[in-house]
Amino acid sequence: MRPFHTDKNKFDKNKDANGDTMSDVTDATTAKNAPTPDDALRISDSKASGPVLAADGTPLKKSLKRALRAQKLRALALIAPLLIFILITFIAPIGDMLFRSVENQIVSSTLQNTVVELEDWDPAGADIPGEPTFEALYWDLFLAAEAKEHTKLGTRLNYEETGVSSLFRGVGRGIDDFGEDQVEALEDFDPVWEDEMFWYTLMSGGDGAEQNSRHLSAARERLTTLTTDDFIGSAGFVPGAEISELLPRTISEYSTFALFTVFADEDVVAEEEPWEAVKVSLIQELTSGVDLAGYSGPGAAELRAAQDMLADQPAIDFKQAFLDDDEDWADSGLWETIKLYSPPFTTGYFLKAVDLQKTVGGVEAVPDGEKIYGTLFKRTLFMSMVIMGSCILLGYPIAWILANLPVRTANLLLILVLLPFWTSLLVRTSAWKVMLQQQGVINDILVWLGMIADDSRLVMINNQFGTIVAMTHILLPFMILPMYSVMQTIPQTYLRAAKSLGATNWTAFWRVYFPQSIPGIGAGSILVFILSIGYYITPEIVGGTTGTFISNRIAYHISSSLNWGLAAALGSILLAAVLILYWAYDKIVGIDNVKLG
Amino acid sequence: MKLTKTLMATTALTVTAGAVLAQDMADSMTLVSWGGAYQKSQVNAYADPYKEMHPGLEVVWDESSNEAVAKLRAMDEAGNVTWDVVDVVASDALRLCDEGLAMEIDPNEILAAAPDGTSAEDDFGDLLVGDCFIPQIVYSTTFGYRTDMVPDGVEPPSDICSVFDLETYPGKRALEKRPINNMEWALLCDGVAKGDVYDVLETPEGQQQALDKLGTIKDSVIWWSAGADTPQLLADGEVFMGSTYNGRLFSVIEEQDQPVAMMWDAQVFDLDGWIIPANLPEDRLARALDFIMFATDTQRLADQAKWISYGPARKSSAPLVGQHAELGIDMAPHMPTDPNNSQNTFLYNYEFWADYRDDIDAKFQSWLAQ
Question: 3-class DSSP state for residue A386?
Fold first, then answer.
């Protein structure tokens, strides 16, 4: 690409230059009339400002553009496989991972009705939500428990409010029994309510009845939102139009049941007894005084009889049922958490990643005893700087020696530099344990030399010192190699010239040699710093408590606590920090000043 | 001659029967375990005998149990679960079950009854925690100490509180870098009755109390995160006492002959076992179930104890525990469940830690970093 740009620029410049001086040149040409090498250009320019033409008559600009475009496309086609590969296997997953740091759809997709009910609830008030919210929660949790989604939500909310996990797990076991008394009364009154075929006929309105699939599609959407499976296809059931008008809630629950039975359980609707939630919804609608007088479809007599019978039964108290299951349902903290985390996107993870938390009153700092991420971020940056610094100090002389030795010796030494690369990282790290521990090699030697007493051996591992030592060793080659390759290109004659002009050794080095080696230091520093900021294994093994990095917490949240949202937020912040530092480096030193060789 | 014929006929029959069955079952199976001596015990007790019964079956081992939860979740999200049977600790099984990543099981249906006819559910008893977990062994997290570092004229430690007693037993301790177990031990040694430990630990004050107690020895603690750390620290003489899994200590003491002894007081029982990933294709599920049925029967669980000092999860296996296959020593006294060892024990409280793990871990890590 590069030569093309230059050529094009040159061409543009020529043209500009010609354009600027056009009037003079034209005068001169007419006056002198002697041929010069650039006559062609001049003539074309003078010809009534027409465009420069290529050999085939098309404007030169256009034909050049075409040629360039073809070149570009060819280049693009060449890199396309790699580009697509990186996009699919690297950028997309990372983007997806980072997206998790704000994504929070699980609450609103699992508690679809509850979230709507909670919109009007004021968490700052003294009361927990009322009966309608608990009823909505019943519909949501019943379905979630059938689809085994409730424990996922429990785990999610448990990150914010301790105890939700077992609360949801427990209610998943008990929710079948909510409204048990009324359901049993109904079934005892007329066993037909346990008959799957009767239910099917009642809900579908019988053969040839007018149909209404509105509730069915609503149920389909509800299930799709909840489970991410698709429930597309024929369910072998369409609600009857008349009964849909009369008992919308029951139809909606039955439709959900029907779809779930067909697509998730792979059974036939008409052969399965409906869920308790369907019966509960029927009881709710019958007791709420629905007018059955005009209804003449299937099961009309049974419905009327059931309505009469239920009039004597106590209403189902959902709130009480939840509280009987676990008194923690009355905890206002739980409801605040559900309300706070009901939007599909949340800043909660990011706030937590900087030791803040969402509360009803706004954003607050977490209690002192739980602050950790701020400390870890600062420590990670600080220790990475220290590691980078010690790599520069240790690596510079080695790189200098390597660059100034005869090639044969230098290559031999270079192998020694590279040798650690060929050893497993774990082995190298564990070797440092053996070296630095209290009963280790260094302490033994110091005791043997009598420099320290046997009972006051130095603590050099499982702390910051150990991490810095081990990581400096591990990352040193990344510093030496770019320095070495840059120093190789600095002619030794420069130093000699400086000295012959009267510079002292130091001045020659500091004013002549060092400035030329800065690109190598820059490249090495960026490599070492960025590698160490995300380092994980070595701090985990030798870091103890004061030498661990933020990456260790990220690893914990990815693999152990499964709080991927928080891990993603921590990772995003780390990424942002690196980008900012990179930008700062560009501003201060200039990224053009980085050379790998 | 006759015998040979009969044998051949039987073999032919078995092979035919096997072939018929094999049509429905996948002919390869990926098992996930922890690697090391533990996986070796599973290979010897379960996988090798099973492979003998099913020639042609390919068994692949994946040593990923440590990250099983995260990996299984990632596989599930990618829609390509390659594991068939996964060995996890009970708390991870609970988590996988909650996440819908592990298959729910009916113990009486998929597990063999005991030889005397006791149903699997009764044979495993309380160890069937959660809806997805198939228990395999009982292990415990307990302390080992260097016998040669016990100060002169002092009784060797036999009480959990000696961990917190730096005056009588000076020296470093190795504790796991997580709150679980450490918090319980701290409260126990801070005067909280064993029955009240979790009630106290539920409250912020109780959590602070436990951290304060741990704070009294914080400067003398090396925190470990891999089970192999403590045995190494003990062998190097870096620590005087340290907590780890009892099987690791067994190998330090009996196999490597180090001057280390067990302190069983207040050992915390935990369970390890199998789960089957949710939504396996039919042929692979059939294979996994067939393997599980075999690998968790009474004899097989007892066999595993020949190779590693973990207690079989079935009551009916306990009397069958014999001698170590290589060292030839009786294994029963080395089991965490042995009556002499289990006079004072804890059972890992799965429900409690499922709820409080995130919260207490945040406090614990913050306290560590201070």
Answer: helix
Please indicate whether the domains covering B2-132+276-333 and B140-270+339-369 agree at the CATH topology level. yes
Count of residues in chain B: 370
Distance in Å, alpha carbon of A117 to nearest chain B alpha carbon: 26
Can you give the residue ranges of every domain in chain B? 2-132+276-333, 140-270+339-369
Cβ contacts (< 8 Å) between B355 and chain A: which residues? 158, 162-166
- Claim to verify: residue A415 and residue A384 sit in the same structural domain: yes
Residues A423 and A300 in one domain: no
CB contact under 8 A, B363 and A370: yes
Q: Which of A55-59, A171-175, A262-266 has the lowest mean pLDDT?
A: A55-59
* Residues A506 and A429 placed together within one structural domain of the fold: yes
How far apart CA A312 and CA B9 sit, in angstroms, is 73
CATH of B140-270+339-369, one of 3.40.640.10, 3.30.230.10, 3.40.190.10, 3.40.1360.10: 3.40.190.10
For chain A, what percentages of helix, strand and coil (3-state, to nearest 5) are there?
Answer: 70, 0, 25
All residues of chain B having their beta carbon less than 8 Å from the beta carbon of residue A376 are: 369
Is A539 in CB contact (< 8 Å) with chain B?
A: no
The residue range of the domain holding A19 is 1-50
Residue A151 CA to residue B194 CA, distance in Å, equals 30
Rounded to whole angstroms, the Cα distance separating A203 from A205 reads: 5
Residues A470-511: pLDDT tens digits? 999 999 999 999 999 999 999 989 999 999 999 999 999 999
- pLDDT of the residue at A57: 79
B75 part of contact set with chain A, CB < 8 Å:
no
Q: Is B356 on the interface with A (CB under 8 A)?
A: yes
Taking CA–CA distances from A379, the nearest residue in chain B reads B369
A187 and A224 fall within a common domain:
yes
Mutate to test the interface with B, among A371, A545, A549, A558 (most CBs of B within 10 A): A545
Give the 3-state secondary structure of A102-142. Answer: CECHHHHHHCHHHHHHHCCCCCCCCCCCCHHHHHHHHHHHH
Q: Which of A162, A372, A553 comes nearest B355 by C-beta?
A: A162
DSSP tally for chain A: helices H, then strands E:
31, 2
d(CA A73, nearest CA chain B) in Å: 34
CB contact under 8 A, B369 and A375: yes
Q: Scan for tokens 């504790």, then name that residue.
A: B175
Specify whether the CB–CB gap between A166 and B351 falls below 8 A.
Answer: yes
A506 and A412 fall within a common domain: yes
pLDDT computed for residue A93 by the predictor: 83
**Global pTM?**
0.86
The count of domains in chain A is 5
CATH code for the domain of A542: 1.10.3720.10
Mean residue pLDDT across chain A? 88
Give the gap in angstroms from C-alpha B288 to the nearest C-alpha of chain A.
21
Per-residue burial over A137-157, b = 16 or more CB atoms within 10 Å of its CB, e = otherwise: bbbbbbbbbbbbbbbbbbbbb
Answer yes or no: do A401 and A538 share one domain: yes
Nearest to B98 among A155, A548, A560 (CB): A155
A563 touches chain B (CB under 8 A): yes
Q: Does A152 touch chain B (CB under 8 A)?
A: yes
Domain B2-132+276-333 has CATH 3.40.190.10: yes
Write out pLDDT tens, residues B119-141. Answer: 999 999 999 998 999 999 999 99
Same domain as A326, residue A307: no
Q: What is the pLDDT of residues B237-284, one digit of tens each?
A: 999 999 999 999 999 999 899 999 999 999 999 999 999 999 999 999
Asked if B359 has any chain A CB less than 8 Å from its own CB, the reply is: yes
Closest residue of chain A to B172, computed from CA coordinates: A438
- CA A552 to chain CA centroid, Å, is 17
